[in-house]
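Hi everyone,

Forwarding the result from last night's run.
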Amino acid sequence: MPKIKTNRAASKRFRLTASGKLKRAKANKNHILTKKKPKRKNQLAKGGYVSKSDAGRMNQLLVK
């Protein structure tokens, strides 16, 4: 049996924390920023966590 490869796209988008949660970046911070308020852009700059319902599928992609 060959080794299971890590999904490279998922490995670049998610980081595993020490407690086992998955950190992620928030969407909508790449372009068309002129119409977005500074408060909104500041909140988008901070990361978030993957929801519990999606975490299982994301962990499967990150199997090493």
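The longest strand covers residues 14-16.

Cheers,
N.
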